[in-house]
Input
Amino acid sequence: MQHKVLIALLTSAATWAPSGIAFAQSLTVTPANTLEKQGLTVIVDQNQFSPIFFDEKNAGIQIVLHGNRIATDGAVRLDKTPEQWAPVPAFVDRTRGTEPNQVVVRSTYKDVKLAYAVKVTAEGDGFRIAVDLDRPLPAALVGKAGFNLDFLPSAYFGKTYLMDAAPGLFPRHPTGPMARDGSGDPLPLASGGKSVTLAPEDPMTRVTITSDRGPLALYDARARAQNGWFVVRSMIAEGAKENAVVWHVRPNVVKDWVRPPVVSFNQAGYTPNRPKVALIELDPHFTAPAEAELVRLTADGRQEMVLRARTRSRGHWTRYDYAAFDFSSVRAPGIYAIRYAGTTTNPFRIAADAYARIWQTSLDTFIAEQMDHVGIREQYRVWSAPSHLDDARQAPPNIVHFDGYKMGANLDSPFKAGEHIPGLAVGGFQDAGDYDIQTPENASVVRDLVWARELFGLDWDETSVDEAARAVEIRKPDGVEDSLQQIRHGALQLLAQYKVFGHAIVGIVDPALRQYAHLGDAGSQTDGLIFDPSLKPAVRKNGASGAQDDRWAFTTDLPANNLFVAAGLAGASRALAESDPAMAAEALRAAKALWAKQQQGAIKAGDGRDDSTSPRSAEGANVTATVELLITTKGDKVYADRLRALLPFIRDHFEWTAAPAVRAVPFMDADYRAQLVPLVRAMKAKVDQDQASNPFGVPIATGTWAGSNQVVAFGSTMYLLHKAFPELIGTSYTLDAIDYVLGRHPANNLSLVSTVGTESKLIGYGHNRADYSFIPGGLVPGVLIVKPDFPEAKTDWPFLWFENEYTVSTTSAYILAARAAMAASEEAN
Output
């Protein structure tokens, strides 16, 4: 009986007309060429498909409905359910159309001679999409090319849909149906209709699409790849040219919808005497109260108001207005919350030890979980069996890997393409959720931990590490500082590369896309047995196998990588001097040799990956390595003289080199410090000017990857400048940075460090991303600005790596910034 009632209810849903629908208001084209009305934004190719990672789920036509980006990748696609590296169109241009409120985008697939225009036109209470081909489909694309629009799965889990009048349910877990032809392609959840309505029962996410031409189909692309979305698709008919696809898209918009305020603050709380300013993110259509309240939570559950104060405008940024609520005057320890516009936030502490534990989980759990070539256990949980014990095989020449690694004609290696390279199955950290060792990032982890330990102390032991047994156990102290063990683990891999090749390499990565897309235990990604080409693929014999699953080593000899590794090893030699003097001496010898190798002639740019032209490469790495050796050798004249010679580069790139440059001050003469003074003044002026452009007081990334990493680097750099030049730089920059990553940022107020703070990011992109879970202590990239102006930090969908992917060097940078912020807050006290 209930089933029949549900069918009747869904069948009639297409005729529902709740009072929340705003039929009268039409979309209008903005100066940024989006289509807008209150509650709805249609983004028209302001964000393009990536030339490296292709389908990142942030391209083509996109729909932001009621403050949530629910649809993306509206484009002609050559696959029913495209995977990440499936072919994508190249953006050509975007213009205004000949009709009112119309935007036209031209795109092309050059390789298959397919060029087309998509016209997006305001129409009634929604918009029309029309696809015009320059010429009819080539024969090879008939039956393959169609127009797709992808819908966010987490917005529709457990909700229903109608294909014409036929009801269906969006599954929480992909369950097929699948094609029986061995292709691995999903069959449609529903097809053959002229109209599809998504979530007829939910006015916040309801969208109806009607097709004038061919029938519609609805797919669950997660059945092919877990990061897929729900796909609505129309095929392009043979011979079609103009109006090859025509859709009428009707997102339901709740009348006069207004986004609720977001009150953002540091989820870890505040020390008593430091500044305490919450930021309130406001929909411009929201009538904002002029006051906010701070309430204390008492033992009997009451909310005791302790401060009512006027908010102060922080201006307009992206699409929102901002106001500040300053409660610095409240210093009494306790549990507090902020009350604004009839809503009370989650609680936070004011306490002298508010920041005492904000970095430990990052060190003893996240970085431990990223350790390569060992097995990792945490009580009952096994994070990984010993991983990648078959490392590594020589990568072939003249290739560009799908993850951005590059290999030229010269291998810079004594090994032939495909040959096993002994000695690399030791130490190192898997960079992110994709299991590779990025050499410069590993060197950065070592250096960050050395700096944090030297400058602030990292006296903490919660993890046991037995390198000989390849065994790591979290929550089992072994009497050795965790930071020392992680420095040693990173240095083992850096030294292994030097001993094998005489130079640093680009990194070690999976050779095949299917293997790279692995989700789960790193120990199961390979069989751990060295590849023997004489064996058949399924045969295992004498510690070898015929499976070509051994990772590739990209071995190009590049100055930037040599210098990054020299810096890491020089720092490691200081840290390990007492606990492992033999390894410390070996690390210092290698660091000196790698550094000396690069001091003759011009330094070739590049680090062998997609970011090879970034300012952090080559000369910048030389500054870092020179400073580390200067510190290790306690001011050796060789390194002091070289650093003076590098001052012109430091002067021209001080924003990138400031941190190592000021670390050198105690080991240089007074003239060196004097030459830095005008650079510090100029940087402060630029920082103040740049940060005035947003209300958060930190650099916010506007590219294709969210920017928590640059925020934490900013925080630690500014603290180092403060310690070297206290008369010029204060502590507010560092405290603003830690406030940002721990909750005071756009889009929501979650701490970007999983499990740190009262409310934090609990769905992340790591080895366990398919579980919709988190790795404690990992820092996610955070807030992405979806062009032109939409800040996004999704909380329920783990597969957007540009918002959610933990990386090991970002998290080690956070540890350094967190310790700097603790020191800054102690100065305030």
Residues 145 and 329 are 63 Å apart (CA to CA). The longest strand covers residues 68-77. The first helix runs from residue 2 to 11. The chain has 17 helices and 42 strands.
